[in-house]
């Protein structure tokens, strides 16, 4: 095998320029592909992280009807059964984030507007999405406080300052009227206009009191130690709950449209990457066909003097693989610093493009990911393409007429 | 004398574009151990086809080729590859070395395929290159050698594994007179020293003059088979 490898390797360098050009085409395809895949993976990671930390968490326990009609009437009863199920999986669960909320009318004096009132446990919420870091004025309440924290947009629209009173009115649990007046103790600034113009926060107990829904939650968010175990853990928790009342869903089940949008975008990028590979692949094929046809006589002689057809096929296959792998290695070596640079310096957007990013609920940046999977996938893809291309010379080795070839 | 090759009613017919072409026609010959034989004849007389048939490179349309009693004309290709590797040496007209291997590696190549021990293989390769006067070109690649030197390496390669016989298809065709004589001297000497049967196809008078047996083919059939006195060759 060593001899066959030596022959294959030396054959590659018989026409150095040709080999370098062919390997370069693979190299450029790999560089573009790894940067592209790094971007796609990075963006997806950021988007998924944004969804998980800002919206859904890894898992949620909800009332079975909540998904169909997300109202306070379909809030879940956070009883001992749910607590026990959570406790039994404490090894997998990092923490839980209980939330209750609903749309209300908020007013100050004669100005009013629709807001979304959310009752939270501030420490848990901050652990999940670093909510406290968004405070620009005042302070975040504790679980025992009774004041509100409002988003900057709400404060501006209602002309609210620290110490002012915000009056809120809405629909409570099972037809109760929800109303209350709260002192504004803090103002938060969000990058997303949607959040900035609608969010009002209260301590969980105060919000449950407001909605006349003690011990009830819209959903119980579950944050896991290992995101990859979400589906498995959801299934196990669900198995311990009353199926008639509770449902446990993963973030992907809660956001199917987003997942489909991510998949569609990934598929588009993958098609583009495959076009790159096809271009590189045809480059390799062209070189291999030329290499084979200019060496037909040599093949005939090699077979005549005792080389087996299978050995000749291995040499040809090795040549194809080697030229491809040279391109892959060069691509990874040269592409990695580029990828790392982008990883450290994400591309920033401003203006309308930035708005479009905000609409997606993420910062207007293109993030790049660094992951061994990216390299591995590119290497495997090129390896498969090279194997397929290598079938041509291998087939030739098995079918060549050695007498006719030796005479060419 | 021991018979190395025996052909019986050997025939090869090609499908020509107009009509079938009989390249070898009813050839019955025996070649003996240690012979130095020239197969002569005009172009198209079937010399190369005959060599291809007795070398197992091509299958006869009819008849048989026996190598030391083994019928190779009915042998499966996979077995034939192995048989050729172990029993037959080949020398072609030109450009028959592996361009990416050095002279020593080229000579070792067949022994390598035969899986001989490395030390033995290297010793034999160096010895053979010394025999053909190329001890200073061990590490030269074919493109660093002249045509005559390349053919000498090819001779060393063909004989290094000590095959039962060596087939040489017009080995001097592309060589100048000096190189051709030099190559023939070497082959004749090795034929004697190693007692390896050598069969040439040629229409080169320089080769014919040195052969001990000359077989003439005309239209694929043997028209003359004559022995030449040993003294003439010396």
Describe this structure in words.
The complex is a heterodimer of chains A (408) and B (234). In chain A, 55% of the residues lie in helices and 20% in strands. By secondary structure, chain A is α+β, with helices and mostly antiparallel strands. Chain A folds into two domains: 2-52 and 258-407, no CATH class; 65-244, no CATH class. In chain A, a hairpin with a 5-residue loop joins β7 (165-171) and β8. Chain B has 234 residues and is of the alpha/beta class. Chain B has a domain at 3-95 and 164-233: P-loop containing nucleotide triphosphate hydrolases (Rossmann fold). Helix content of chain B is 37%, strand content 28%. Chain B has eight helices and ten strands. A six-stranded mixed beta sheet of chain B has the order 6-7-8-3-9-10, with helices on both faces. A four-stranded antiparallel beta sheet of chain B has the order 2-1-4-5, with helices on one face. In chain B, a hairpin with a 6-residue loop joins β1 and β2. In chain B, α3 (103-113) packs across α4 (118-131), α3 (103-113) runs parallel beside α5 and α5 packs parallel to α6. The longest helix of chain B is centred in the last third of the chain and has 18 residues, at 177-194. The two termini of chain B are 21 Å apart. The A-B interface holds A 3, 7, 10-11, 13-14, 297-298, 301-309, 311, 402-403, 406-407 and B 48, 52, 55, 57-58, 78, 81, 84-85, 90, 92, 95-96, 98-101, 109-110, 112-114, 157.
